[in-house]
Amino acid sequence: MSIDLYYTAGSAPCRLVLLVAAALDLQLALKPLDLMAGEQFKPEFLKLNPQHTVPTIVDDGFSLWESRAISRYLVTKYGAKTNLYPEDPQARAVIDQRLDFDLGTLYPRFAQYFYPQIFGGSPADEAQLKKLEEALVFLNTFLEGHKYAVGADLTLADLALVATVSTIEAAGINLHPYPNVEKWFELVKSTAPGYEDANQKGIKQMQEMIAKLKAKTEL
Fold first, then answer.
1. Active site annotation includes 11
2. Number of structural domains in the chain
């Protein structure tokens, strides 16, 4: 039985789940939701997720949302023998720290800087840009001396962070000042299973959406 994934392709959290599924070679039944059209508020979806967010999975009747919770669940149930989320408590703790950094710092700082420009037509806020740049400096420091985000193996931390970093790059933020991030980014793009289908296709859709929204605000 396949797992249902309710998602929006351009969403970084949704792309994280797609990357995890690809790494685990899991079959997903994709259920696209048009958030702009309000499909997330349909009664049948609210029964699955009263918070009406994506991504949401349904695995044999079990419904779960929030991308990092979904990712941990999928690896725990279907990929316990992989290196994505190892049982060693210290390795797992560092992965959790990186996931929390992505959730609580890196992605929100990007969103606070970029989304008001795209969805609200606001001018770029230099103070918010500085906060985003600081978060990228943090990530660059975390990666010093490491092949991947947590040591020598690809983990959930890399998949979460690459979904965010690829979004940041696609929005036109230059990664060149962060050499460790650039090097790591190229490595993950070339080694994460199914990267092109799981992440890059969604990036292209995001870029198309950005172009359309920019065109509207420039009228």
1. yes
2. 2
